[in-house]
Amino acid sequence: MSDILRELLCVAEKAANIARACRQQEALFQLLIEEKKEGEKNKKFTVDFKTLADVLVQEVIKQNMENKFPGLGKKISGEESNEFTNDLGEKIIFRLCSSEAETVELLSRVLNGNKVASEALAKVVHQDVSCIDPSLDLIRINIPQNILGIWVDPIDSTYQYIKGSADIKPNQGIFPCGLQCVTILIGVYDIQTGMPVMGVINQPFVSQDPTTLRWKGQYYWGLSYMETNIHSLQLPIPKGNGSETLSQRNEDTNAEAESHGFSAVISTSEKETIKAALLRVCGDGVFRAAGAGYKSLCVVQGLVDIYIFSEDTTFKWDSCAAHAILRAMGGGMVDLKECLERNPAKGLDLPQLVYHVANEGASGVDQWANKGGLIAYRSRKQLEMFLSLLTQNLGPADTNT
Question: Which domain of life is it from (predicted)?
Fold first, then answer.
């Protein structure tokens, strides 16, 4: 099973290289800007460049996993379609080609014959990436491949990715916006139970070299299956593949957080009733940040205790990766609405999010929405205490989010 996880880390790093290339290579960046200007129209194709970057990443992940583990690529689902349509109604299906030259040719068709941009991007797409993580050798568990499904969000927080802000200052380690909020999310789940079993989060833009302006990233992973729980934050995270070591956070962080009350990260679009209740529960410990993946990562890193979101606009591909890592750490991700309606005195299990069943009566992407909102947490005890306080500070009508 460590082989699958290792390959997921490699394809996530390749995806991060693609994301960085699209921001750093001048030809690609200029094309990106041209496509996003108001009032400008592409000569032939109606192409949103962020979608092209997303599709490239998603297709690379699918093809690489299929090559290494036949049959698994077909069980990968994600946010993006790989179809592009021009103004004449002509359709181009993007698939990863077997050779770099073929990929250049296909990308050139999509990018209006921009050969320089196509060649630069194809080079990154076909570049081999190795992943050296000795902690993966500690995994001694076998999970049948035929029970695995995979959710992928190729580039989460696409607005921040396109905007490209590199000079945002963090607030107690949490970035409210900027490239640091961009994540690549790969979550593996059990198709029988719907529970997440493996997760990889790659943060492509962690630190920027002031001289070369090149970005370095960081990855995180976790595995939770039966009695096995292991994650990358248990050991120093190895340097390599464009990633830098993150200092190991110790348990004093949680103890300090408890002594100062709860902390939570939220979306800027959170409901006013929830924000008001959180202000009473957390005081100054409420932080705003972009990207569902990044907000979940803040919980994984121990920067906050809770990520809460009451709306139904996150999806399975947004939550599965972090959910698996949090489970490996002793936490999880639950349905907010069901939690607020639950009676703790009856000893009911927490309503963990599941990933194998579509929402009844929904269509399109709404089939896979987290309809009741969500709460991500590292400690069940902390979650129970938090929910008790939150419920006390919400009116009866507000508990029906």
Answer: Eukaryota
Catalytic center residues: 54, 79, 153, 155-156, 158, 318
Closest Cα to residue 129, out of 29, 204, 208? Answer: 204
Average pLDDT over residues 182-201: 96
Q: Exposure of 338 by Cβ count < 10 A (0-12 exposed, 13-18 middle, 19+ buried)?
A: middle
Name beta bridge partners: 265.
287, 307
pLDDT for 24 equals 75
Strands 91-93 vs 83-85: parallel, antiparallel or unpaired: antiparallel
Concatenate the DSSP letters of all residues of 231-283 into one string.
Answer: EGGGSPPPPBTTB-PPPPP-THHHHHHHHT---EEE-TT--HHHHHHHHHHHT
Above 70 in pLDDT, residue 217? yes
Q: For 395, what's the count of Cα atoms within 13 Å in the CB-facing half-sphere?
A: 6
Q: How far is CA 268 from CA 141, 291, 309, 325, 376, in A?
A: 41, 10, 10, 25, 17
**In whole angstroms, how far apart are CA 68 and each of 51, 135, 309?**
26, 21, 37
DSSP class of 349: P
Q: Is 137 annotated as a binding residue?
A: no
Quickly list DSSP for 96-110.
Answer: --SSHHHHHHHHHHH
Q: φ, ψ for residue 388 (rounded to 5)?
A: -60, -45
CA 390 to chain CA centroid, nearest Å? 26
3-state SS class at 122: helix
pLDDT digits (tens, 9 = 90+) for 278-288: 999 999 999 99
How is residue 358 annotated by DSSP?
P
For residue 120, the SS3 value is helix
Q: How confident is the model at residue 246 (pLDDT cuts 50, 70, 90)?
A: very low
Contact 25, 67 (CB under 8 A): no
Supply 71's token pair: 């049959």
Residue 230 vs residues 113, 147, 261, 289: alpha-carbon distances, Å: 47, 20, 28, 27
Residue 33 assigned to a binding site:
no
What average pLDDT is seen over the chain? Answer: 83
In angstroms, the Cα distances linking 30 to 14, 156, 225, 310 are 22, 21, 45, 37
